[in-house]
Amino acid sequence: MLFWIVIVLITCWMALKYLPAGWDQYRPLPEVIALIPLLVVPLVLLLPATGFTGNWPQFGVTVVLLLVQVAWQIGYVAPIPSALSPILGVPVQTLPVDGEYADSSFADEAGASSEDSAESADDYPQTSSASPQAVDDDADSVEAADLKSAASTDDHHTIRVMTLNTRYGRADTGTIMHLVKQENIDILAVQEVNTAFIKRLDISHIGDELPYRVLGAVRDDDNAGSNALFMRLKPAIFGDSSVNISAAAAPVATVRIGDQCVEFSSVHPKSPPRSGKDWSDGVRALGQFALRADSRNEEGFNCCADDDANTDDASIVANGSTDSDDVTPNADLLAGLPPELADIITRGMKDDSDEDSSNAEPTPDVTETAVIELPDFSEPDRGPVPHHAAVVMGDMNSSIYHPSFRDALRQGSGLADSSFELHAGFNTTFPASWPTFPSLIEIDHVLHTQGIRAVSAHAYTVPKTDHKALVVELEVA
């Protein structure tokens, strides 16, 4: 009878994986569902116990439950037929490619010899009111940093990203910098960030490797801190918040890589103990990043305006310096304007802010600029409209076992979990603060939309935080 009780309990526990999306918001279901893959341990112990005692019905049910567990987890080491994915309740392993990407299938292996080249957005204007800060005033060092970014082979470009929950900003910045250099990280996403952590990163010379940053808006409902992005590539579009998640704001930065505009984001949905409903809503909201990319592709949105417009904005040019007294107009006002008109508006606003404007140069009569023709965004000389993709990184407090997380992956054209897509083993990231105990579950993820595929993924220990850093190499068509 004891064996049957244990088996029924395990069966009901495993069945929670098939709850409808959103039903997993009720505590302690999020925590219980996260531990489903660990039920392999009691099942393995039950196998000899029921066999040696001659309880063959219980033995047979235990074997079936073990096979179900293997079927759920085999996707991490081998492909699962797509027809079985709905039955097994596992997410899509790979995403289709549409349009011009349909004929540029990804190679099974990236080229052994790849040319290091810079595919940055340095020639493109900012078109957001947020301001990515450039922290290195040495033009040569920034140029060298850009040259190390986004290696390309033919029509494909590789980019390396890293995500880490810094645990209230306590993570060891020396180890983070070591990983950034060793793994040649192009985009770093960090969560639970605070001012002290940013200062320690600056002391560690983060700007030498990743000169651009977008810090998430600080809010009262931050999940133990805010989120941030540090980048080797200069963004064309950026913002301190994006998708509405009931937790820390999700900063975004769009970078032109090859023929694609890729939106990178750092996210951290609320942890279940803070609010089960906010946790579920926040996790499911991650699917909106796929919807954002779909919407931009449908609208034919071009993330990069005219090459010469707005390139001298001191707030985003790495070798410039932004004086604290400078007044820079909202970048949305300048997006797409001819440089002459943008310069007049900028200098006019600065002159108005000067306490002593007696020695200021006369501002040209704005009426003279009224005849300047604004750019026609439908003109063909702006080049083909690029494909839009998204890469979502962060501590998502959920795994593929959670119905809310799988619902996020299904929205729009879909999101793929890089670790699950690779079939190269597990990348467990939590907990990572127990010295003699391994990480048990994978709740830190790098998700991406179509037009991108994962090449490799590895988890690394960082002192003073309870999460491992997840490093993923992505190939962009």
TrEMBL record:
This protein's record includes keyword Phosphoprotein: no
Segments traversing the membrane: 33-52, 59-78
Ranges for region Disordered: 108-150
Any one GO molecular function term: endonuclease activity
Annotated signal peptide: none
Pfam families: Exo_endo_phos
Keywords: Endonuclease, Hydrolase, Membrane, Nuclease, Transmembrane, Transmembrane helix
Boundaries of every Endonuclease/exonuclease/phosphatase domain copy: 162-467
InterPro entries: Endo/exonu/phosph_ase_sf, Endo/exonuclease/phosphatase
Protein name as annotated: Endonuclease
Organism the protein comes from: Bifidobacterium vansinderenii
UniProt lineage: Bacteria, Bacillati, Actinomycetota, Actinomycetes, Bifidobacteriales
